[in-house]
Amino acid sequence: MIRVEQLSKHFGAIKAVDGISFEVRDQETLILLGTSGCGKTTTLKMINRLIEPTSGRILIDGKNIQEQSPEILRRSIGYVLQNNGLFPHYTVAENIAIVPQLLKWDSKRIEKRIAELMEKLHLSKGQLNAYPNELSGGQQQRVGLARALVADPPVLLMDEPFGALDNVTRSKIHAEFKDLDELKRKTVIMVTHDVQEAFELGDRICLMDKGKIVQIGSPAELLFKPANQFVESFLNEQRLQLEFKAIRIKDIWDLLPHSKEDTKTASLSADTVIWAGLEKFKFHQADRLNITHEHETRSIRFEQLITAFYKYQSTRAHE
Amino acid sequence: MNEHQQTLWEFVRQQSDKLLMQTLQHIGLTFISLIIAVVIGLPLGIWITRRKHFSGIVLGAAGVLQTIPSIALLGFMIPLLGIGAKPAIVALLLYALLPIVRNTYTGITGVDAAVKEAALAMGMNKWQILFKVELPLAMPVILAGIRTATVINVGVATLASYIAAGGLGEFIFGGISLNNTNMILAGAIPAALLAILFDFLLSRLQYFNLRKIKTATATSPVLLLLLASFYFIPSAYGGKLTAGFTPEFMGRQDGNLGLESKYKLKMHPIVISDAVMYKAAYENQLDVISGYSTDGRLKAFGLIVLDDDKKIFPPYYAAPIVREDALKRFPELEKTLNLLSGKITDSIMTDLNYRTDYLHQSPERVAEYFLRSKGLLAPSRNGSSGIVRIGSKIFGEQYILASMYTMLIKGYTDYDVSTKTGLGGTKICFDALNNNQIDLYPEYTGTGLLAILQPSSKTVDSLIIDKDKTYNYVNRGFESNYGIKWLKPIGFNNAYALMMRGKQAKQLNIKTISDLKRYLESN
Question: Which residue on chain A is closest to B212 by alpha carbon?
């Protein structure tokens, strides 16, 4: 668990981060969201001491990070940068091996771990000896992720990790990211200014403005119980899409018609968000989808899903 | 006046040993200084990336060093480090410093901030970041700096010959003072080729892709050391006595060539500029030097002239030369000028030169002192029956003589005097006389013979063994060709000479060049 207490960072007269406190639970993904200059990146970099706070403290599993040597601390925290920060003079394998080498792993162990990660991240073995500039943007970002994960650190910090990617690559990597078993065991703090990304990847979102936290909560809480006008207007522009991403099919299960399972079509768990269901319709070009919730499976048409969503939306609005 | 015009190829073939040695020395000088410059410049460049507020001062200082003219920088080095390789290497490394420091600084500050941040975030300490990230990534830029420094060093190393550090400058500057084009080219072409070659090789190193940069970084120090070691191979000078000759002396028949052919004296001399040669002899860095027999520094540094017993140095007896029409116009003139004849011996002239060159007394004061001591000084009569125009070349001895003649004419005749001193060299001075711009100036018999009359080498050989023959020959030649008369010689002979420290010569019982040869050949 990471605890941030009364953390401040002042650059001269500018209060980049102004007395914020929050907690990140183990194996949770917390998104620091906000416009540029809101203090989210500064907050992130204080967690691995790339930036030293003006005041306040940070505890990881109850230990004050100021009391550890920064090098040792950093080796136990994975870090992914927006522009990947890969060493251009190192091969892919050498890049991934940096932290294990600092930790003095033997070469067999390093080799094995790299092979494992390459497979999980859909990188081919042939790319091990390639240099970063020979890879595509998406591949570079995967290598960056592998490098952060290689020593299996309990905490992963990500600074706009997908910011430099085009939309198609990004959504593909998002999907992989969510599926990656390695990440499920990790406490992740990710910085982004992309609201869609925050909703897609975050367990909770911490919305910041001018160095302060405006609201911290699950995507649905931010959407449906905004703390103030700022939160509402921040999300308003892309509201519909966000709602598709924030609401799970099980939330609207009662509004869906009872229809028998169709054996010929693809199936889906009701735990997924509505957006994922809509994408599945599109992907399979199917009339119907089998959706399973607590041992019950219903065969649902595209319009039925949308209708149920709108019904749910109107009941929320009247709460 | 060569009977046979030697081609460049013939010269190179004939001098191939020397050329090879000079080339190796040149390479050695370039790379020794380069290595030291890298050893100093690289850490300095790194340091100023950590202490940015010093970067301005350090880069500024290195920039200022770069603007000091090479000759001046070499000059500054002599009092501190003497002559030879040491000061040359220091001067060269100072020139090489700026490109190396600057490029190290630029290269390291230019490393992608994201890469540095990643290195830091992964838990590398500052040394690991330096050696694993910053230096490898800055290497192409640093190598570019080293490349620039190398090319600069190849160029500046030609000047090292001024202070007896060898290199291709020996041929280049020897050729310039001897007006020998082949010799200049034999030095200049290899120097240019070296610059091009090293530039090319280092450019290959610089554009190695990232994959090979590790190999390149590892091999370059080895290569540098190998090249630097060239300097030590030829620097083993043989002999019991170290000789240092000027480039001009090295290539002249009445210089080192004559020593080799007539005396069979092989000294393996090092080549050095006359500006520092006397001092070097004084400081025991050289034992035998070439020089002018009346130079004031002989006295200043306790040097003595070895007797030229086989007469290879032509006589350079000084005498006033005067236009015949001037002698007619000023009937008192010849008698007055001859007052000085036979009065100034070599040692007196050396002493007088010492007073101007070394004690920095004015030529007038020195002239007055001398005339008074000989009882020749007479108060000026402030005469007005015509003006005698006196010229002089642009060095101390000539100023002194011009002053003496001025005082004598004013004191013993009713003529007035105008002086045109500081005429730059024989040709200008003689042309002024020949074209009736001046009436007289002091000239030397050897110069009259070799620079102005330029007879065949056979005639020269027959004349130079005897000072009177030379005097008579030039007097006749000047009279019939130019209507110019040589008056009686003043007495001293300002010829080329070999010199040694007086103490050492006495100790070794060396008085003549033949004694020197015998000493070197004993044991």
Answer: A89
Question: Pick from B119, B123, B211: which is nearest to A75 by CB?
Answer: B123
The pLDDT tens digits of the residues spanning B220-267 come to 677 777 777 766 544 434 567 888 888 778 877 778 888 888 888 887
So what's the pLDDT on residue B426? Answer: 76
Rounded mean pLDDT, B108-120: 92
Any A CB within 8 A of B384 CB: no
What is the distance in angstroms between the Cα of A188 and the nearest Cα belonging to chain B?
Answer: 15
Give the integer Cα–Cα distance in Å for A113 and A122. Answer: 14
User: At B330, is the secondary structure helix, strand, or coil?
Assistant: coil
CATH fold group of domain B8-229: MetI-like fold (1.10.3720)
- pLDDT tens, B475-511? 999 999 999 999 999 999 988 889 999 999 999 899 9
Q: Judge: B122–A102 Cβ closer than 8 Å, yes or no.
A: yes
What are the residues of chain A with a beta carbon less than 8 Å away from any beta carbon of chain B? Answer: 48, 50, 70-75, 77, 79, 81-89, 98-99, 102, 131, 147, 157
Tens-digit pLDDT profile for residues A234-255: 888 788 788 888 888 888 888 8
Amino acid at B140: P
Return all residues near B235 (Cβ < 8 A) that are at least 6 apart: B25, B28, B85, B166
Number of H helices, E strands in chain A: 14, 13
- Fold for domain B243-311+498-521? D-Maltodextrin-Binding Protein; domain 2 (3.40.190)
**pLDDT value at position B4?**
53
Q: Where are the domains of chain A?
A: 2-243, 248-317
Alpha-helical segments (H) within B207-332 = 210-229, 247-251, 256-262, 274-282, 296-300, 324-329
What is the CATH code for A248-317?
3.90.1280.20
Which residue does chain B place closest to A153, by CA atoms?
B122
Is the CATH number of domain B318-494 3.10.105.10?
yes
Alpha-carbon distance B121 to nearest alpha carbon in chain A (angstroms): 6
State whether residue B108 sits within 8 Å of chain A by CB. Answer: no
Per-residue pLDDT of A28-42, as tens digits, reads 999 999 988 899 999
**Is the complex ipTM more than 0.85?**
no
Please tell me which residue, A106 or A278, carries the higher pLDDT value: A106
- Nearest residue of A to residue B127 by CA position? A71
Classified by CATH at the fold level, domain A2-243 comes out as Rossmann fold (3.40.50)
The pTM (predicted TM-score) of the whole model is: 0.69
DSSP 3-state of B508: helix
Residues B144-170 have pLDDT tens digits of 899 999 999 999 898 888 777 888 888
- Cα separation, B244 vs B280, in Å, equals 9
Residues of B with Cβ-Cβ distance to A50 under 8 angstroms: 117, 120-121
Chain B partners of A152 at a C-beta cutoff of 8 Å?
Answer: none
Residue intervals of chain B classified under CATH 1.10.3720.10 are: 8-229
Contacts of B450 (CB under 8 A, 6+ apart): B254, B314, B460
